[in-house]
Design goal:
By secondary structure, this protein is mostly helical. A two-stranded antiparallel ribbon has the order 1-2. The longest helix is centred in the middle third of the chain and has 68 residues.
Amino acid sequence: MTDSIMSKAATMEIPINSNGDTGTLPEDDSLEQAAKLQWSLDEKDLQQVMVSGPNLNETSIVSGGYGGTAEGIIPTSSIKGSNMHHSSSSSSLTAEEMTRGVAVEKLESVKKWGLNTYKCTKQMISERFGRGSRTVDLELEAQIEVLRDTKRKYENVLRLARALTNHFYNMVQTQHALGDTFADLSQKSPELRDEFGYNAETQKLLCKNGETLLGAINFFVSSINTLVNKTMEDTLMTIKMYENARLEFDAYRADLEELSMGPRDAVAMARIDAAQQQYQVHKEKYERLRSDVTIKLKFLEENKVKVMHKQLLLFHNAISAYFAGNQQQLEQTLKQFNIKLRPPGADKPSWLEEQ
């Protein structure tokens, strides 16, 4: 309607009289009314834009000039959160890269382990069926076999010494109970008081000497147990590591020899170089562990002689003094080896000793 009114006002003719003055037109009022109507409509449109116009976050910035295309429009909401989006995406990308790196590292570790296991298993089967060669140190192998045989014999000594301790402990407890019974009967049988009294004193003396001998035997058993189950076992663990290193060394040596007998193209030469590096690494490991085993065997032999010399002397002196009835010599033997007996009633170890 506004357009029709404006077009009507624009096309209206203005008459001019003979004097050149404009005459009064009946349409003047309609023209003024049309102009006022157009102004009021413009104000309403502006208010509507101000009230219900687009949000500031949803407005757009035109990168081109007036009347540019829509391709240059940049949403302001993207500018508002661009920094936050960039930081979050970069942090998530870093975490993803770290996770991928850990997975790749684990995969490589499993791959190396599988390849090493395959080579060692192949070498072990070849040796067992007599098809492959193995590195042998005759002198060292003989020493290792002597150690294993010595450990078996010392384990038998330890087992028998523990059996002797249990039997002798039961005998001492029986002597203690028998002495108490004799002492009780000496008080209840006046006619046999002296006879029961002599036997009660004898059993009590035997029980006391037996507890002293038990202290010496327990010390002997404890020292043998440390020698067998700790010192020798530690050396045997090193020997086991040495034998595994020897097997790996022979496996990679056989692999290098097999590759050296094949073709000599570029790919084969690269594989030979890699095999040569692995061979050198396992050779150094094998030689290092062989040196460790040699040193440990030497120190073990010295320690074994020193410990057994002391313990065998203790066992002999204590047993001889006990069965000779020499209480003074038996107590002197314990003092010589710094053995302290537990007081009566302290059969059960304290919680601190059990730790």
